[in-house]
Design goal:
It is built from three helices and 13 strands; from the N terminus they run ααββββββαβββββββ. By secondary structure, the protein is mainly beta. The chain has a single domain, classed as Lipoprotein localisation LolA/LolB/LppX (outer membrane lipoprotein receptor (LolB), chain A, Clam), CATH 2.50.20. It has a 13-stranded antiparallel sheet, covered by helices on one side. The longest helix is centred in the N-terminal third of the chain and has 11 residues.
Length: about 280
C-alpha cells in the first residue's frame, strides 16, 4: 500500500515506457505535478509548523521559516526551551539553550552544510542545472512493493542523493542520503508523504527519517504550512548579544555624569547631506 496520500486531482500524463523517459523529462513532470514553475516562483516565504517525534516517542514543537533567497530559520522547542538554527544567506548560527547557553554561536562544519541544503527554497530538483546539480535516471526500483523512478542527484558540492519518484504522480516518496557525522559516514532514508496544496504548490506534510538499517525513526508532521506570510529579515540575521557589564561596575549616578556643554559653545559644522 502506498505511503503517499495525495490530494492532487485532475492531472493527466501521457503513458510512456519507463525506459523511454529521460531524467530531464521525469523532473519536468515532477515540477508540473506539484504546481508548475509559475506557482512555485510565486511563493516568496514559507512557514512550516508542527511536531517532531523522536525515538522513544518524545515530542517537540518545530517551526521552520524559509524566505527567498536562501534564508532559513529552524526552531525546536522542548520543555520550555527553544533551540534555533538559522542562515541569512551569508552567516549560519545557532542558539542551544540546553546547557544554559543563551548567546548565538557559529554553526559547525556539518551543521553549516546541512542548513545550506535546507536553505534551497525550491529544492535541488527545481532549476537543477542552473544550481550546478546533475540528475541521471538510473532505472526503476521498488519502494514498499511499488515501482518508482530512481534518479541520481549529484549536488554542486559533490554530494550524491537518490530520489525515488512515484510513477503515477511523479513526486518524491523517498530520498537516500549519505552524510558525514563527526567524521563517520552515515546513510539516511527519508520518506515523504501527505502532499497537500499550499498556494498552488503541493508540498509534503510528513517527513520521516532514519539511519539506514535502524528501526529508530524520527518523524516530522507539519500541522500547517503557510505561504507568503510576512517574515522580517532580522529573524535570519545573527542577533547582537547585549553589552556585558564588568563585574562590580555600578551605573553612573547624577553626580558622576559628564557636564552638559554650555549654550554659548560652538557646535561643529554639519557635513553636507547629513542630519545635524
Amino acid at each position: 500500500m502506498r505511503r503517499v496520500l495525495l490530494a492532487i486531482a485532475g492531472l493527466v500524463f501521457i503513458a510512456m515506457p519507463a525506459s523511454a523517459q529521460t531524467a530531464e523529462e521525469i523532473v519536468a513532470k515532477y515540477i508540473k505535478a506539484v504546481g508548475g514553475p509559475e506557482k512555485i516562483q510565486a511563493v516568496k516565504t514559507l512557514r512550516r509548523s508542527g511536531k517532531f517525534t523522536g525515538g522513544g516517542g518524545f515530542e517537540a514543537a518545530i517551526v521552520e521559516e524559509n524566505k527567498r533567497s536562501n534564508m532559513v530559520r529552524q526552531e525546536f522547542s522542548l520543555q520550555g526551551l527553544t533551540a534555533i538554527n538559522a542562515y541569512d544567506g551569508k552567516t549560519g548560527w545557532k542558539i542551544e539553550p540546553w546547557q544554559g547557553k543563551k548567546d548565538p554561536e557559529p554553526l559547525g562544519e556539518e551543521e553549516m552544510k546541512q542548513i545550506l541544503e535546507d536553505s534551497d527554497f525550491d529544492g535541488p530538483l527545481v532549476n537543477y542545472q542552473q544550481k550546478g546539480n546533475k540528475v541521471e535516471f538510473v532505472g526503476m526500483e521498488p519502494v514498499e512493493g511499488t515501482d518508482a523512478f530512481k534518479l541520481k542527484l549529484t549536488l554542486a558540492n559533490g554530494d550524491v542523493r537518490y530520489y525515488y519518484l512515484d510513477t503515477d504522480y511523479y513526486v518524491p516518496i523517498k530520498i537516500d542520503t549519505k552524510r558525514m557525522i563527526r567524521g563517520a559516514e552515515r546513510e539516511y532514508e527519508t520518506s515523504l508523504g501527505d502532499y497537500k496544496e499550499v498556494a498552488g504548490w503541493y508540498l509534503p506534510h510528513s517527513v520521516e527519517v532514519n539511519v539506514k538499517g535502524s528501526q529508530n525513526r524520527q518523524k516530522v508532521t507539519y500541522d500547517k504550512i503557510e505561504a507568503n506570510v510576512p517574515i522580517d529579515d532580522n529573524r535570519f540575521h545573527i542577533p547582537t548579544p547585549p553589552a556585558k557589564t564588568e563585574p562590580g561596575a555600578k551605573p553612573l549616578d547624577a553626580s558622576e555624569k559628564l557636564p552638559q556643554k554650555k549654550a554659548d559653545e560652538k557646535k561643529p559644522p554639519t557635513k553636507p547631506g547629513t542630519k545635524p
